[in-house]
Amino acid sequence: MSRAEPFRAMYPCARMTVRHPLIELTVARVKEFVRQPEAVFWVLAFPIILAMALGFAFREKEPERIPIGVIEGSGGDYMEALASSPALKVVEYEPEAGAEALRTGRISLLVDAREDVTFSLDETRPDARIARLEAGEAIQQAAGRQDVVQIVDQRIEEKGSRYIDFLIPGLLGMNLMGTGMWGVGFSVATSRMQKLLKRLIATPMSRTHYFMAFIFSRIVFLVLEVAVIVAFGWIVFDVAVRGSILVFAVVSLVGAFTFSGLGLLVASRAQTIEGVSGLMNLVMVPMWILSGVFFSSERFPDWSQPFIQTLPLTALNDALRAVMLEAAGIGAVALDLLVMAAWLVISFLIALKIFRWT
Hints:
It is a single chain. The relative contact order is 0.11. α9 crosses α10 and α10 (245-266) packs antiparallel against α13 (312-326). It is built from 14 helices and 4 strands. The chain starts with a helix and ends with a helix. It has helices spanning 5-10, 21-34, 37-57, 77-84, 95-103, 126-142, 163-193, 196-200, 207-237, 245-266, 273-290, 305-309, 312-326, 334-354, and strands at residues 66-71, 88-93, 109-112, 118-120. The chain is elongated, with a radius of gyration of 28 Å. By secondary structure, the protein is mainly α.
């Protein structure tokens, strides 16, 4: 006898339309999301605001000049050469003030030419090394050095090579991770705190139905969530999807499911909102840093790359960039899809095993 039979026996005259538990739970999840304005803001509005801010901050413009200091009275013939460099912004200092400016990071390089030409810099700073090269080049040319080989710089402005082209897929991946994990984790933790999960035990559903409802409800908002970010990047910054829309949809769908599964796993035992928040941050913050959202993950040491490449957000970001910027096909992103699918299956099965209703 099904769990619905006792209700029919108690109310024989009642007209009951009993739909499948998975359908009912999915509809409930959708309604729950729509009735939370703050959730809609974080899913749809926040990525747009972040993309706009970073896009305009790193828009195409002339490179900024690197500030350097020159000890007063020491520049001589070199001062004019340094000031004419398009890459340097020259400020004169007294010796103690110049050393202080270098120490506090207001300048990247301090030039002292009172006797020999001396460069003071922190070689761990990339801008300091660039300033060293530019200043040395300007001084050598002022001293009469001539280049044996003339080199012509060719500026690349092709779309796909800009920072905003790199950023939009990263923001999309970050948003899919955030909405998948926070949307599921908070909902489960809140229901557990309010004792709603205990009531669901008495309904004609299984634990699998409850879990799958979270997965399927992501599909409802996934189209809108992805379309808003992609449309914004295309209209405002001319960042288009160069590859197949079908492949792009498959990557987005697998990514969304993967992080929904991780959200279920993280929330399987959490008793409070504070507890699930801490666990969510523990899982997501390392991926924000390591998985190439705002800068390439290849900047990290070689020994860390095997670990970074197994992270689900790394796989998602790499696949999104491959499809959007390089027009990659399904074969080129197959490995990334397998990594995400493995995370989805493993996290879902573990969550199914350890989940507690109370």
